[in-house]
Amino acid sequence: MTFSNLVDTFRQLIHRFPDKRTGRNTIYSIEDVVLGAFSVLTTQSPSFLAHQTAMAENKGKSNAQTLFGIQAIPSDNHIRDLLDAVPPQQVFPMFEWVFNALNELGQLQVFRAVEDQLLIALDGTQYHSSNCIHCKNCSVKTHKNGRTSYLHTVITPVIVAPGHNRALPLEPEFIVPQDGHHKQDCETAAAKRWICKYSARYRALNVTLLGDDLYSRQPLCEQVIAAGLNFIFVCKPQSHPTLYDWLDQLEKAQVVQTLRIESRHGKRREIDNYRFVNQLPIRDGDDALEINWCELTTTDSDGKVVYQNTFISNHRISADNVVGIVQAGRTRWKVENENNNTLKTKGYHLTHNFGHGKEHLSALLASLNLLAFLFHTILDMMDTKYQLIRAKLSSRKMFFQHIQALTCYHCFDSFDALLDFMILNRPGFSGDILV
């Protein structure tokens, strides 16, 4: 998959986007409006459209046209006005198209882990907070001092794998007020909706969901199993008193199994102590779901604990797979580190108010931001030229600074031509790859 292929596919999808305009005198197509917003997020340049407008006036063409297929460049305000009426779900088929294409090309195999499972980590993240700016889709929080905050939060599912430094974002699920519900929406309810919507796609692919302690409750675990999926969730003693009471009794009866592994990291020695047991009740009551539990405690040579965590799963745990189960469970942190943290601090500015709107604008722009990150991740996986440049410009910030500067001054015939220019003209690069 090339950048041009991805953009062309997305442009075809945009034909289906709703357009609130009713007259025929429309200067800008809905495709140009959506891709205008997407180009800003993809180049990580808030001024991209302004620069391309000036370039089109001076040179008769611009990178907005050659890289993104934008025929007429709309203003920022025009983009915000028209996109406010577009639900974020309109973008989601592009995530599905990318997933199916990667699966068909065999690119998802490198993400498979324990028990040949494809790991999908779920986690909620806040991307907007204000004391005054709000819309009908905001969550509302009233503080003890009487102050009110308006929030936007989203679940960002991503495909992850132990030892893999990339994360592939999937369709998000926004935490928004639900029709017919008096209670405010929450992360758990949103996770259940996501499972209902997408489990059929993943059922035959051996998928295990990862999540923090919030997810390790019986109703959600039962829903995961009923959907034909698996789970490995963090499970804390404070939230599961019955389970840990059973565990104490089994410990006294010497039923809990253990595994000890010593390893060296340079001069440093660490000891991994695993404990595991199967068929524990997740809660009190005759209808309690039986789950399987494991723990890892890592100590250094002085006996100091450097890591400790516990997990539950519907995978049966043994000495043969407990290390893999724990590694998979720990990988859920990648949804925060490689995905959410990158989106907030590495140039995507997920929490920046690009535009809030009165209906869907904030959520739509967040979805386009996620899609831009997905495009970049695919190029980092599959485009040799992109990989070469990212290796030389290892800082993501520096890489996009170069993209921003170059597209200000020169019009490239394609994204591939832009990469060629960077390879041929930066000291230390080799042009051999272009042969």
Compact overview of the structure:
41% of the residues lie in helices and 19% in strands.
What is the average of the pLDDT values? Answer: 89
Distance between the termini: 20 Å
Share of helix, binned: 40-55%
CATH topology of the largest domain: Transposase Inhibitor Protein From Tn5, Chain A, domain 1
The biggest beta sheet reads:
9 strands, mixed
Looking at this structure, what is the CATH superfamily of the largest domain?
A: Transposase Inhibitor Protein From Tn5, Chain A, domain 1
Proportion of residues in β-strands:
15-25%
Give the low-confidence spans: none
Helix-and-strand structural type: alpha+beta
Outline the fold blueprint:
Layout: H1 3-14, H2 30-43, H3 48-59, H4 63-68, H5 76-83, H6 92-104, E1 118-121, E2 124-130, E3 139-142, E4 148-155, E5 158-160, E6 168-169, E7 173-175, H7 187-202, E8 207-211, H8 218-226, E9 230-234, H9 241-252, E10 257-265, E11 268-281, E12 290-300, E13 305-313, H10 322-330, H11 334-345, H12 361-382, H13 384-392, H14 396-409, H15 415-425
Parallel strand pairs: 1-8, 8-9
Antiparallel strand pairs: 1-5, 2-4, 3-4, 4-7, 5-6, 9-13, 10-11, 11-12, 12-13
Helix pairs in contact: 2-5, 2-12, 3-14, 12-13, 13-15
